[in-house]
């Protein structure tokens, strides 16, 4: 650890210089003030390539304080390569305490998942976003999508949902299901599974989204209404894990991963590694509450 | 009561594209028409009969003079009235039936006849039954009812044209050569139809070269020559 | 005249569109008198100027003129496809005709466009999104007017396709795979999806073969009779104008040179240019 401290001292606290941090914080304030609105920002150079989590890292490094306890997950796991490297980087640059425990963390960075454990008012949740523009699939030009957001002209998005239903009998969007924030802007909730989308609604935590390659920041402040787009007669629904359960804990009300063992047999396991660990330890972590989870029989 | 009072009506065409050549078509036309009257316009080809009729219908813009028409909503000068007022009158009161049938291609005969009726009658089936009734009286072969009139013979087109003009029972009918290419029997049917309209109060201005038609229809005749009225006479049978 | 002078559906006054940087002489030095719409002083182009007319409910108005006369510009300005340079337009069903719709915000314009107007373009690609199915294209218009019920949307779409004689079986096909006439009929379905009181038709039959043309004309005529939609028909084809319209405006070099009842324009044209137009086409 001696070496680490020496290394960290070569840099400003949290790597980014203070002027740039200020710029990012100002943009974050604007994003919080207009929930769901994409704010352009500088996206400064980082020691990792754009598109590898720089957006999330910018946000984390701009807002992290010396007292913060940092947790980072990638696809629900604390142990994946991306999470480990970024955790190590943040730790080296800030010397902040890091943790795997969701309830202990004050600042959580994530790629593609929201924790199963409920977030609190004392937590900030930071997303690494690859594509911040929910309308990109229906409109390729940026000047047009900005105009569409400005005028709340979302018919094309709705038609694409309609088309998806007509083609497949269901709205076939897995990750990144478009949501309407505060009844105004349509937002891409980064590619989190449908399972996580209802957990954004009226969440107690502050959610910040950073897209480094696309140079956009946006936010969902605490206690904001976030609704998945749905028709009056064709409703949004979460992933269906009917007839399956976590093979280690027997738990059914969490987002599950599919595992194949060496003998070819198929098993399911809870995707959120910290949540799984807690269940294995016979703790009972408080989960998010939403109507989709309630509908499930345990 | 006069439904129509025409005073000092004249029409001159100014052909800009032929070095501003001027053609005088009507000169100082004056006449009146009583409500429910049938007036025949006679005269040789080129004497201005059709021009006069078109001036009354505003297909031609009169150069000078007044055409006072007493509509259901009061007197209107058809020379100066606003286009929308004329459209309104054409829809509700005044119908013009030319010598030639002009229709949208590919509309069945029965619907062509109904066209004016559809404007007022929302019940399409009822309108069509009226139209069938009329075509039956006019002796149009049954298998032509659903065919397209563009392909019809002269006499068949003529009957469609007349039926279309009178089906909605206009208040003022301008009709150009209604019996020209019809056989004696059908001629009588058409004449009877127009007389029936007259009995219901329609005023009719008719152009014809056919003495028999004129004799049976007209209360009065106006004879034109070189764009001027040369005589106005009461019909012999009155 | 005074009896129904207040009965208009659409009132347009002094509508003007100029490209470039005009000066105060630009409008005076262009037009049919100069046989040009390019300003000699500034080189700005007067697409249309001083266009004024009233359109009545259920009325069909034709706009004729040669290519470049500004006839399409007029409807594109009124449908907000272009920004006006000057002039105003009022639509009765919008704020009871008390607000100039051309000066409204984009959001309000979108509302007017989606709820009170329809447009059929010469090229179906301008009016239809070829990445969506024909049903999806109609859905777009319905969704824009606030319908978020898939069942109702599909019901309405199949009614409309039925009315315009597009086989309902092809509702979930993309219009890219349709014939030109069928694409045009899908476009018409979309344009009338929200029962607008006003429909713009910009050269809708140009480029279709004669038999298809006749079917499209017949359809438009029928819609007009059944639904009482007021229409502005832009065409250089006088026979289209003759069959569809009650009243006609003749345009040249961006100006109205003559307006009147369609049969009068065709049989007794007053202006030199209208006489030329009529005599060269009949």
Question: How is this structure best described in words?
Answer:
The complex is a heterotrimer of chains A (298), B (238) and C (282). Chain A is of the alpha/beta class and 298 residues long. In chain A, 28% of the residues lie in helices and 17% in strands. Chain A has a domain at 2-134 and 176-228: Bacterial phosphonate metabolism protein PhnH (Rossmann fold, 3-Layer(aba) Sandwich). Chain A has helices spanning 2-8, 18-33, 54-63, 81-94, 142-150, 155-168, 273-280, 291-295; strands spanning 39-40, 69-74, 97-98, 107-111, 124-128, 179-181, 185-187, 206-211, 216-220, 226-228, 256-260, 266-270. In chain A, a hairpin with a 5-residue loop joins strand 11 and strand 12. Chain A is globular and about 55 Å long. With 238 residues, chain B is an alpha/beta fold. Chain B has helices at residues 49-57, 83-92, 109-120, 124-137, 154-166, 184-199, 211-217; strands at residues 2-15, 21-34, 38-42, 64-71, 74-77, 94-97, 172-176, 203-207, 220-225, 228-234. Chain C has ten helices and nine strands. In chain C, the strands form two sheets. A six-stranded mixed β-sheet of chain C has the order 5-6-7-3-8-9, with helices on both faces. Chain C has a three-stranded antiparallel β-sheet with strand order 2-1-4, with helices on one face. At the B-C interface, strand 1, helix 2 and helix 3 of B face helix 7, strand 9, helix 9 and helix 10 of C.
Total number of beta strands of chain B? 10
Termini Cα gap of chain A: 46 Å
Question: Helical segment tally of chain A?
Answer: 8
Output the CATH class name of the domain at 2-134 and 176-228 in chain A.
Alpha Beta
Mean pLDDT of chain A: 92
Rg of chain B (C-alpha, Å): 18 Å
Structural class of chain A: alpha/beta
Give the oligomer, counting copies of the same chain as homo and different chains as hetero: heterotrimer
Shape of chain B: globular
**Hey, roughly how much beta strand do the residues of chain B contain?**
25-35%
Question: Biggest sheet of chain A, in brief?
Answer: 7 strands, mixed
Average the pLDDT over all residues of chain B and give the rounded result.
Answer: 90
CATH homologous superfamily descriptor of the domain at 2-134 and 176-228 in chain A: Bacterial phosphonate metabolism protein PhnH
Count of β-strands of chain A: 12
Q: Predict the CATH topology of the domain at 2-134 and 176-228 in chain A.
A: Rossmann fold
Protein name (chain C): Phosphonates transport ATP-binding protein PhnK
Domain ABC transporter (chain C): 10-278
Pfam families (chain C): ABC_tran
Organism (chain C): Mucilaginibacter polytrichastri
């Amino acid at each position: 650890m001696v070496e680490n401290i020496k290394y960290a001292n070569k840099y400003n606290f949290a790597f980014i210089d203070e002027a740039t941090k200020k710029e990012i914080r100002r943009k974050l304030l604007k994003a919080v003030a207009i929930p769901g609105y994409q704010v352009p920002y500088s996206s400064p150079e980082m020691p990792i390539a754009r598109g590898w989590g720089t957006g999330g890292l910018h946000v984390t490094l701009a807002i992290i304080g010396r007292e913060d306890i940092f947790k980072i997950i990638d696809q629900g796991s604390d142990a994946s390569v991306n999470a480990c490297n970024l955790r190590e980087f943040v730790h080296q640059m800030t010397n902040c305490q890091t943790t795997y425990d969701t309830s202990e963390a004050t600042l959580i960075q994530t790629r593609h998942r929201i924790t199963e454990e409920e977030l609190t008012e004392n937590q900030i949740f930071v997303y690494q976003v690859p594509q911040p523009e929910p309308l990109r699939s229906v409109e390729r030009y940026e000047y047009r999508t900005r105009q569409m957001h400005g005028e709340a002209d979302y018919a094309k998005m709705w038609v694409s949902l309609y088309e998806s239903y007509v083609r497949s009998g269901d709205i076939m969007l897995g990750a990144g299901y478009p949501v309407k924030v505060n009844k105004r802007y349509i937002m891409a909730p980064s590619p989190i599974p449908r399972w996580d989308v209802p957990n954004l609604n009226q969440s107690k935590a502050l959610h910040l989204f950073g897209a480094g390659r696309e140079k956009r920041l946006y936010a969902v402040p605490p206690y904001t209404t976030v609704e998945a787009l749905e028709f009056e007669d064709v409703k949004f629904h979460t992933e269906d894990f009917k007839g399956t359960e976590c093979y280690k804990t027997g738990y059914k009300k969490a987002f599950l991963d599919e595992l194949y063992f060496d003998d070819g047999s198929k098993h399911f396991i809870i995707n959120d590694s910290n949540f799984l660990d807690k269940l294995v330890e016979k703790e009972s972590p408080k989960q998010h509450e939403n109507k989709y989870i309630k509908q499930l029989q345990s | 009561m006069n439904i129509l009072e025409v005073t000092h009506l004249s029409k001159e065409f100014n052909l800009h594209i032929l070095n501003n050549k001027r053609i005088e078509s009507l000169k100082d036309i004056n006449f009146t028409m009583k409500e429910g009257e049938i007036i025949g316009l006679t005269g040789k080809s080129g004497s201005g009969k059709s021009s006069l009729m078109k001036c009354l219908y505003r297909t031609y813009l009169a150069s000078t003079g007044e055409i006072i028409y007493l509509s259901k909503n009061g007197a209107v000068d058809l020379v100066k009235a606003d286009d929308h007022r004329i459209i309104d009158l054409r829809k509700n009161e005044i119908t013009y039936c030319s010598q030639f049938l002009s229709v949208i291609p590919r509309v069945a005969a029965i619907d062509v006849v109904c066209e004016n009726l559809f404007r007022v009658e929302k019940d399409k089936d009822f309108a069509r039954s009226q139209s069938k009734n009329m075509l039956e009286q006019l002796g149009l072969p049954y298998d032509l009812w659903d065919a397209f009139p563009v392909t019809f013979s002269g006499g068949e087109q003529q009957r469609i044209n007349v039926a279309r003009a009178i089906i909605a029972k206009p208040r003022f009918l301008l009709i150009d050569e209604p019996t020209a290419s019809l056989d004696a029997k059908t001629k009588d049917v058409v004449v009877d139809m127009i007389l029936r309209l007259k009995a219901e109060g329609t005023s009719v201005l008719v152009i014809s070269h056919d003495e028999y038609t004129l004799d049976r229809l007209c209360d009065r005749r106006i004879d034109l020559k070189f764009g001027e009225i040369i005589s106005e006479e009461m019909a012999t049978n009155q | 005249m005074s009896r129904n002078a207040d009965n208009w559906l659409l009132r347009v006054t002094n509508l003007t569109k100029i490209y470039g940087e005009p000066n105060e002489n630009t409008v005076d030095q262009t037009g049919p008198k100069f046989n040009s719409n390019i300003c000699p002083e500034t080189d700005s182009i007067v697409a249309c100027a001083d266009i004024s007319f009233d359109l009545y409910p259920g009325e069909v108005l034709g706009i004729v003129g040669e290519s470049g006369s500004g006839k399409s510009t007029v409807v594109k300005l009124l449908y907000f496809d272009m920004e006006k340079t000057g002039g105003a337009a009022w639509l009765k069903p919008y704020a009871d005709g008390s607000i100039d719709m051309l000066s409204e915000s984009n959001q309000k314009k979108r509302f007017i466009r989606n709820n009170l107007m329809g447009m059929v373009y010469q090229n179906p690609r301008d009016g239809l999104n070829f990445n969506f199915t024909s049903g999806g294209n109609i859905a777009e218009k319905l969704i824009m007017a606030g319908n978020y019920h898939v069942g109702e949307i599909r019901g309405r779409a199949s009614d409309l396709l039925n009315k315009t004689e597009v086989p309902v079986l092809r509702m979930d096909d993309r219009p890219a795979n349709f014939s030109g006439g069928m694409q045009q009929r899908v476009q018409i379905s979309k344009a009338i999806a929200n029962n607008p009181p006003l429909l713009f038709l910009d050269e809708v039959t140009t480029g279709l073969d004669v038999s298809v043309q006749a079917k499209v004309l017949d359809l438009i005529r029928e819609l007009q009779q059944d639904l009482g939609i007021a229409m502005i028909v832009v065409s250089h084809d006088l026979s289209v104008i003759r069959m569809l319209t009650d009243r006609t405006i003749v345009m040249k070099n961006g100006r109205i040179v003559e307006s009147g009842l369609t049969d009068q324009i065709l049989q007794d044209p007053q202006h030199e240019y209208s006489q030329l137009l009529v005599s060269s086409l009949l």
